[in-house]
Each structure stands twice: as structure tokens, then as C-alpha cells.
């Protein structure tokens, strides 16, 4: 492999490494977003459950 071939190989390797790092970072970001979404969804469910229990409790107190 001559100098030009080595240089092209190194540049391709660097580009591949950067792309791979980008993909890994993208996967991490997407995983974090999914976690945030799930946490938000769970929080919303808890709020709905609490509101439902409060309404049921209030209704029972009226009886």
C-alpha cells in the first residue's frame, strides 16, 4: 500500500469512526427521549389515578 492508499484508508477509517460515534450518540439520545416519554406517561397516569381516587373519596364523603 503506497502513501496515498494509506492516507485514503486512514481518512475512511476516521470517517467511519465519526459516523459510528454519531450513530451511537443518536441511539443514546433516542433512548433518553424514550425514557423521558415513559416517565412523563407514568407521571400522567399517576396524576389521573390520584384525581380518580380523590373524586371517589369525595363522592363517598357525600354519601
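^ C-alpha cells above, recovered residues below v
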Amino acid at each position: 500500500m503506497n502513501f496515498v492508499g494509506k492516507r485514503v484508508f486512514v481518512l475512511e477509517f476516521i470517517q467511519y469512526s465519526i459516523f459510528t460515534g454519531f450513530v451511537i450518540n443518536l441511539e443514546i439520545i433516542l433512548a433518553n427521549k424514550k425514557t423521558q416519554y415513559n416517565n412523563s406517561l407514568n407521571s400522567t397516569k399517576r396524576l389521573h389515578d390520584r384525581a380518580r381516587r380523590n373524586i371517589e373519596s369525595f363522592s363517598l364523603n357525600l354519601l
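The chain has one helix and no strands.
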